[in-house]
């Protein structure tokens, strides 16, 4: 049986969105005040701490939240469940200290359409979705194709 070129094209076609989630705590590696986690893709999760954090209190205690900001300046064609994925935030052993981790050390256009656990919140300046009170890996989103991630 011969395969036609459209079949091969389908096998090589790029995906329109890349599924992702905040890294599970046990996948985050720490070296000093620098944290990273593999994604299985081209990018890594990156985070670092600054300041005088108490010694032996830099370990991650639990997951706090993930944040997506709705891009209100780009109303044209913008879905309610799309925006710029910002970060995943973790609480540290040191009381009051948090670690922000960024996918590829950037913000990304993302969609949370059809993803559970995200709650809408409107503040005085921003419209956001946040995902909290679940395990980090439950905060799922899709990275959308973009010419210029920032």
Which helices and strands occur, and which strands form pairs?
Elements: H1 5-12, E1 18-21, E2 29-31, E3 34-38, E4 44-48, E5 60-69, E6 82-92, E7 98-103, E8 108-111, E9 118-122, E10 127-132, E11 140-143
Antiparallel strand pairs: 1-11, 2-3, 3-4, 4-7, 5-6, 5-10, 6-7, 6-8, 8-11, 9-10
Gist?
With 150 residues, the chain is mainly beta. Helices cover 5% and strands 42% of the residues.
Descriptive keywords:
150 residues; 11 strands; eleven-stranded antiparallel β-sheet; mainly beta
Give an account of the 3D structure.
This protein has one helix at 5-12; strands spanning 18-21, 29-31, 34-38, 44-48, 60-69, 82-92, 98-103, 108-111, 118-122, 127-132, 140-143. The chain is mainly beta and 150 residues long. Strands 1, 2, 3, 4, 5, 6, 7, 8, 9, 10 and 11 form an eleven-stranded antiparallel beta sheet that branches. The termini are far apart. The protein has one domain (18-143). It has one helix and eleven strands, in the order αβββββββββββ. The longest helix is centred in the N-terminal third of the chain and has 8 residues, at 5-12.
Total number of helices = 1
**Beta strands, count:** 11
Q: Largest sheet, if any?
A: 11 strands, antiparallel
Overall spatial form: globular
Based on helices, strands and strand pairing, what is the structural class? mainly beta
Please bin the fraction of helical residues. Answer: under 10%
C-alpha Rg (nearest Å)? 18 Å
% residues in beta strands: 35-45%
Order of helices and strands: HEEEEEEEEEEE
Number of domains: 1
Instruction: State the distance separating the first and last CA atoms.
Output: 47 Å
Poorly predicted runs of 5 or more residues: 1-15
Integer average pLDDT: 83
Pfam family, one: DUF3757
Protein name: Protein of uncharacterized function (DUF3757)
Signal peptide: 1-19
Keywords: Signal
């Amino acid at each position: 049986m011969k395969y036609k070129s459209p079949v091969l094209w389908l096998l090589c076609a790029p995906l329109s969105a890349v599924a992702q989630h905040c890294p599970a705590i046990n996948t985050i590696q720490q070296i000093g005040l620098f944290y990273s986690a593999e994604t299985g893709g081209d990018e890594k999760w990156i985070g670092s701490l600054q300041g005088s954090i108490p010694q032996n209190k830099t370990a991650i205690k639990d997951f706090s939240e993930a944040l997506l900001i709705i891009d209100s300046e780009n109303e044209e064609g913008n879905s309610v469940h799309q925006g710029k994925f910002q970060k995943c935030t973790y609480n540290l052993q040191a009381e009051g200290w948090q670690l922000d981790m960024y996918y590829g050390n950037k913000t990304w256009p993302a969609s949370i359409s059809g993803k559970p656990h995200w709650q809408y919140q409107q503040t005085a300046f921003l419209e956001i979705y946040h995902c909290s009170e679940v395990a980090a890996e439950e905060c799922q989103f899709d990275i959308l194709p973009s010419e210029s991630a920032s």
